[in-house]
């Protein structure tokens, strides 16, 4: 027994911010952003929230799978930008979609979040604990970026994507996942610092108490990490599942940056056409990027039953990994 994705859905905020719009507020240009990242526009929330987008993406995924909310036993929401400290976004989604029979919790693994959540749901399903799950990635990165910092604000966007995952004879064949906490400072964002009766925060002592309240990133380190670790772990996964790189129909990677994806394709010796991208329209939506792209491909009719798909995520932690599945 394994787990299979039987339906997908996504939800993007209505508001579109182009590179030219950003050039009005920071010293940048469409040419700089698009040549270095492949990003041309992104969506950012106005009235939407992480939970409202997640719930809408979930409803669309349920409809696509032909599964009712009442049948769902497990909801995992991958997010690093929850609306509330608690309850978790997954519990808010459970209420919104009326999945009263489900257990619901959040999982935080930044841009690897959807992949790690999918693997977690798979482990529950494979061991017979649950049969039907909802796995969601939702992010409102626009509240974590400093809109005065041109080196980060141009990269990110908001959105949500969801997948219904069910017990099946074929589907997910294997996965690999990694973390390297020693490299945490490469990409980090402070939570509310400890300031209580007996302790005040000391600003700037290390990356857990940075001077900035916003997301901070060493872009070149992230780039080097991604172009090395992503092909490495995909190769390992292909060995594990006895698959040649050219037997995979689609490589669906976290949509951080087109240059990272082009470099991975080149290092793997695989035609770039098998690495679909949509960051030109949505920017980097962290845990939401893989399920949003999966849903686009699904709705465009590009995913055929039996096709071989590799998903790969990478991000803060550092965390990274890949999963191989039959569609
Ligand atoms: N517009 C214009 N100029 C800019 C901008 C901007 N938006 N941002 C930075 N610059 C300037 C810098 O100030 C610098 O100027 P200087 O030479 O006068 O000091 C110059 O451009 C070069 O800056 P670098 O940081 O060296 O630029 P680089 O070529 O490395 O590109 C980038 C930056 C695009 C972030 C690159 O490092 C990258 O792609 N890194 C990967 C990071 C990534 O994708 N992060 C996503 C989040 S992490 C994740 O999802 C896994």
From TrEMBL:
<keyword id="KW-0275">Fatty acid biosynthesis</keyword>
<dbReference type="InterPro" id="IPR016039">
    <property type="entry name" value="Thiolase-like"/>
</dbReference>
<keyword id="KW-0012">Acyltransferase</keyword>
<feature type="active site">
    <location>
        <position position="111"/>
    </location>
</feature>
<keyword id="KW-0276">Fatty acid metabolism</keyword>
<dbReference type="GO" id="GO:0004315">
    <property type="term" value="F:3-oxoacyl-[acyl-carrier-protein] synthase activity"/>
</dbReference>
<comment type="similarity">
    <text>Belongs to the thiolase-like superfamily. FabH family.</text>
</comment>
<keyword id="KW-0511">Multifunctional enzyme</keyword>
<dbReference type="Pfam" id="PF08545">
    <property type="entry name" value="ACP_syn_III"/>
</dbReference>
<feature type="region of interest" description="ACP-binding">
    <location>
        <begin position="255"/>
        <end position="259"/>
    </location>
</feature>
<keyword id="KW-0963">Cytoplasm</keyword>
<dbReference type="GO" id="GO:0006633">
    <property type="term" value="P:fatty acid biosynthetic process"/>
</dbReference>
<feature type="active site">
    <location>
        <position position="284"/>
    </location>
</feature>
<dbReference type="InterPro" id="IPR013751">
    <property type="entry name" value="ACP_syn_III_N"/>
</dbReference>
<comment type="function">
    <text>Catalyzes the condensation reaction of fatty acid synthesis by the addition to an acyl acceptor of two carbons from malonyl-ACP. Catalyzes the first condensation reaction which initiates fatty acid synthesis and may therefore play a role in governing the total rate of fatty acid production. Possesses both acetoacetyl-ACP synthase and acetyl transacylase activities. Its substrate specificity determines the biosynthesis of branched-chain and/or straight-chain of fatty acids.</text>
</comment>
<protein>
    <recommendedName>
        <fullName>Beta-ketoacyl-[acyl-carrier-protein] synthase III</fullName>
        <ecNumber>2.3.1.180</ecNumber>
    </recommendedName>
</protein>
<dbReference type="GO" id="GO:0033818">
    <property type="term" value="F:beta-ketoacyl-acyl-carrier-protein synthase III activity"/>
</dbReference>
<feature type="domain" description="Beta-ketoacyl-[acyl-carrier-protein] synthase III N-terminal">
    <location>
        <begin position="105"/>
        <end position="181"/>
    </location>
</feature>
<dbReference type="Pfam" id="PF08541">
    <property type="entry name" value="ACP_syn_III_C"/>
</dbReference>
<dbReference type="GO" id="GO:0005737">
    <property type="term" value="C:cytoplasm"/>
</dbReference>
<dbReference type="InterPro" id="IPR013747">
    <property type="entry name" value="ACP_syn_III_C"/>
</dbReference>
<comment type="subunit">
    <text>Homodimer.</text>
</comment>
<comment type="pathway">
    <text>Lipid metabolism; fatty acid biosynthesis.</text>
</comment>
<dbReference type="InterPro" id="IPR004655">
    <property type="entry name" value="FabH"/>
</dbReference>
<keyword id="KW-0443">Lipid metabolism</keyword>
<feature type="domain" description="Beta-ketoacyl-[acyl-carrier-protein] synthase III C-terminal">
    <location>
        <begin position="238"/>
        <end position="327"/>
    </location>
</feature>
<keyword id="KW-0808">Transferase</keyword>
<feature type="active site">
    <location>
        <position position="254"/>
    </location>
</feature>
<keyword id="KW-0444">Lipid biosynthesis</keyword>
């Amino acid at each position: 027994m394994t787990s299979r994705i039987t339906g997908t859905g996504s939800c993007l905020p209505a508001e579109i911010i182009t590179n030219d719009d950003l050039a009005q507020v920071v010293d940048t240009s469409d040419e700089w952003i698009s040549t270095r990242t492949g990003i041309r526009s992104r969506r950012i929330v106005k009235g939407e929230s992480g939970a409202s987008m997640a719930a809408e993406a979930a409803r669309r995924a349920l409809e696509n799978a032909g599964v009712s909310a009442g049948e769902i036993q497990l909801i995992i929401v991958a997010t690093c930008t929850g609306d509330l400290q608690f309850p978790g976004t997954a519990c808010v989604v459970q209420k919104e979609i009326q999945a009263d029979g489900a257990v619901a919790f959040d999982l935080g693994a930044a841009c690897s979040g959807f992949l790690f959540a999918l693997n977690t749901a798979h482990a529950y399903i494979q061991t017979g604990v649950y049969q039907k799950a909802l796995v969601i990635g939702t992010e409102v990165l626009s509240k974590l970026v400093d809109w005065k910092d041109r080196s980060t604000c141009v990269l990110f966007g908001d959105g949500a994507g969801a997948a219904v995952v069910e017990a099946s004879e074929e589907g997910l064949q294997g996965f690999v996942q990694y973390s390297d906490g020693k490299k945490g400072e490469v990409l980090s964002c402070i939570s509310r610092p400890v300031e209580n009766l007996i302790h005040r925060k000391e600003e700037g002592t290390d990356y857990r108490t940075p001077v900035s309240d916003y997301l901070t990133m060493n872009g070149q380190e992230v780039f080097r990490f991604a172009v090395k670790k992503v092909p490495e772990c995909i190769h390992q996964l292909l060995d594990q599942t006895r698959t040649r790189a050219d037997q995979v129909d689609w490589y669906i990677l976290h949509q951080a940056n087109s240059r990272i994806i082009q470099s991975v394709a080149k290092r793997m010796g695989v035609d770039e056409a098998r690495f679909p991208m949509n960051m030109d329209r949505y920017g980097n939506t962290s845990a939401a990027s893989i399920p949003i792209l999966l849903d686009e491909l699904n709705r465009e009719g590009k995913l055929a039953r039996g096709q071989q798909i590799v998903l790969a995520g990478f991000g803060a932690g550092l965390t990274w990994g890949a999963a191989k599945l039959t569609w």
